[in-house]
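Lecture notes, unit on protein representations.

Consider one protein chain, 196 amino acids long.
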Amino acid sequence: MHNPAPRNVTTNQTIGGITIPTTTGPPTPAEARQIAAAAYVFGYPLVWDDVLKEHQTAVPAPNATLGAAPINQIARPYQAQLTTASLSAQSLPFATYDWAYAQEWLNLTKEPIVLSVPASNGRYYVIQPVDAWQNDLPSLGSRTTGNESGAYAFVGPGWNGTLPANVTKIQAPTNTMLLVGRAQQNGPADLPAAAK
């Protein structure tokens, strides 16, 4: 019987909570399965995020009905229907009655993107920034940054520059970001005011 060459095994690596066996020789079948599973879990959010971004930005102009817009453009407030049994999943991306939604996919590769938020005049709102790993960054809104107007610059991981004094820097860990905005909506007739 042929004995394989001895293998040098070093300490396993843990990246983002995922343990990957480290060897200097070919992995055993069990190690190969563990490495493949870890790679799938580690990479899946990036693939899912990119597919979603491609789908939701594949429009020539912002489309409130679809909740879609080209990259670095806002899909203006949409989805103001009461959820009923007659609404299909295809026509209702978010089942809600009291929120007006807006979203924007950001590409921060070349430069920061500045989001100007108007005063909400007491209307509750929240803007949820999400990176390409599907991690939430600190949100903007009534509860966290207040109801006054403000300007926020989302900057990519490699950006080094100076922002105007009245712009708050938000360091993004990835160059792809999704902003999901929600504003309190007091019934369907209130959508224009919530959108404003």
